[in-house]
Write a structure and sequence with these properties.
heterodimer, A: alpha/beta, 6-stranded mixed beta sheet, 10 strands, 22% strand, B: mainly alpha, 9 helices, 69% helix
Chain lengths: 288, 270
């Protein structure tokens, strides 16, 4: 059964004013349990508005968000409960750190959820482990951490709520290449081990290509594509038309294909590309 | 939402008032506020009211916006007028226990109400038609003589400009932090006063941290552009007095003369 289902989801900012703008327009899609979904789209395409509706931070102007088949706005007073089920990591989440120690800060979410004692402790330590926070850092002040460590602590604060769906908005923005790589693989590992649903908003096509099962493409407030990663990235020309691009390696392979070399379309990683090219070269006898 | 709070009240436009020199607007407003409180009979009060209405009409700012600024002070108006009602002198018209209402009291209440309303409307005219930067710029120039007594006029006005510039930024930041903490299950609506204040900590701490961070960043950015205080600094846009300002001064002068004539010719009501 699908865990998240969006039905005719629409959100309009500044309704009935001069600044009226529809940020999300009639989006319909459903996400299966345990999927890793990538969300791409250029700036202002409605990605952020879309994900903020998933945990009820903003209320759709019309349409529904169904979590496990039930409308999340059915009981508006209990919307907080939804936020523990759909964890949301904002852009630059390190600015939400506030408590005396990293440990206390990570436990803010699970405490709000109602966890106590050993259960709380386990949730915090597990979350810290997922993002690769060392134990000795937990008793430090979050303001003494480095930028990358702060980011990790903030993400751990959301993971510690043990949400069924984890939404991350540009989690790797502003990190150095090593940090990006590491954080991304930790998120992928979290997804593998917890078998939870993860939604990742990113501008980096390479990141998305590496981890996502399916991709939502947003353009001008509409969901223009929702398909397997391979399928989406094999439509490179269409993506370029809406201001996006495909991963570099995919582009190279698409162009090789246009030159008449028989490679698969929608190659997503350098490793795949290497094995394809070597096998073609072997077949042609140019590689010994 | 936090964003709905209107602090920067500037309403862009091209009316006569918008194009007046901000310095003359400040001086004229002060003169006008003084004259509002020099009205002692109904004719002069009417004169002042008509002038206020005229200025509002010229400003080209929708009347609704003015009503909004009146809404904030409506309780003060009601309380002061009720108090004035009971503190009049002379023969009581109506009496009950120790409370008595006199004709003088009723007059005072009416005067106070109209005076405060005119005062708020006239001040709103200034803030609606003048951008905050123009306003601080004008203040700096008007207060320049204070430099002689070593009052740091430029520094103070720069602080005001910076503070105003950061109001929308910090509001946006507050909004973002609130969303993030709400996403972590923070509950800001439930509980008694104490728990609610406690619930603000997760918002206030990151807000202060980021305000300080921004302050340092701005300071560095300004120093990188060789800012070192007011001495020897010139302006890109120099404000000039024009014929328009003369018209403004004449208009207010006429009102002042009118009010004084009324005061001399007619009996004081309060």
């Amino acid at each position: 059964m699908s865990i998240l289902e969006l039905k005719n989801l629409t959100y309009t900012y500044g309704k009935k004013t001069a600044f009226e703008k529809t940020a999300v327009d009639n989006v319909n899609l459903s996400i299966e349990k345990g999927e890793f979904i990538g969300i791409i789209g250029h700036t202002g395409s409605g990605k952020s508005t879309l994900v903020q509706m998933l945990n009820g931070l903003i209320k759709p102007t019309s349409g529904q968000v169904l979590l496990d088949g039930a409308d999340i706005w059915e009981k508006p007073k209990e919307i907080r409960k939804i936020r523990f089920k759909v964890g949301m990591v904002f852009q630059y989440p390190e600015y939400q750190l506030f408590d005396e120690t990293v440990y206390k800060d990570i436990s803010f979410g699970p405490k709000n959820k109602g966890l106590t004692g050993a259960e709380l402790d386990k949730a915090v330590r597990d979350a810290a482990k997922f993002v690769g926070m060392k134990d000795e850092l937990l008793n430090k002040s979050p303001f003494d951490l480095s930028g990358g460590e702060k980011r990790r602590a903030a993400i751990a604060g959301v993971i510690a709520m043990q949400p069924e769906v984890l939404v991350l908005d540009e989690p790797t923005a502003g990190l150095d290449p090593m940090g990006r790589e590491l954080l991304l693989s930790q998120i992928a590992q979290y997804h593998r081990e917890r078998k939870n649903t993860v939604l990742l908003v990113s501008h980096s096509m390479e990141d998305i290509a590496r981890v996502a099962d399916r991709i939502i493409v947003m353009s001008n407030s509409h969901c223009v594509m929702f398909d397997k990663t391979k399928e989406v990235f094999s439509r490179g020309r269409e993506l370029e038309k809406i201001g996006l691009r495909v991963p570099q390696i995919t582009k190279i392979m698409l162009e090789l294909r246009e030159k008449g070399i028989d490679v698969d379309e929608g190659i997503l990683t350098v490793d795949d590309a290497v094995s394809q090219i070597t096998s073609i070269l072997k077949r042609k006898g140019r590689l010994w | 939402m936090v964003r709905d709070i209107t602090l920067g009240q500037y309403y862009p436009g091209k009316s006569f008032l918008h194009r007046l020199d901000p310095r003359s607007k400040i001086i004229l407003l002060i003169a006008y506020l003084v004259i509002i409180f020099c009205t002692f009979n109904y004719l002069s009060l009417l004169l002042v009211t008509i002038f206020t209405a005229l200025v509002i009409a010229i400003s080209g700012v929708p009347f609704k916006t003015y009503l909004k600024s009146l809404k904030i002070v409506i309780t003060i108006v009601i309380i002061t007028s009720i108090l004035n009602l009971f503190y009049g002198t002379g023969e009581p018209i109506w009496q009950w226990w120790i409370i008595s209402v006199t004709a003088n009291g009723i007059n005072r209440a009416i005067f106070v109400t109209i005076r405060i309303i005119c005062l708020i409307l006239a001040s709103s005219c200034l803030t609606f038609t003048t951008s905050p930067t123009d306003l601080t710029d004008a203040l700096e120039r008007l207060l320049k003589p204070l430099n002689k007594i070593h009052f740091p006029v430029h520094e103070v006005s720069m602080m005001m400009t910076l503070a105003l510039r950061f109001v929308p930024t910090l509001l946006e930041e507050t909004d973002k932090i609130m969303q993030a903490q709400k996403a972590r299950g923070a509950d800001m609506e439930a509980g008694n006063l104490f728990t609610r204040i406690k619930a603000m900590i997760p918002i206030l701490v990151p807000l202060f941290v980021s305000a300080f961070r921004r302050a340092y960043e701005v300071a560095t950015a300004m120093e990188c552009r060789c800012y070192n205080g007011g001495s020897g600094r010139t302006r890109m846009k120099v404000i000039h007095m024009t014929k328009r300002d003369a018209v403004g001064f004449i208009g207010v002068a006429l009102i002042i003369i009118g009010v004084f004539i009324c005061n001399i010719m007619m009996k004081k009501v309060i």
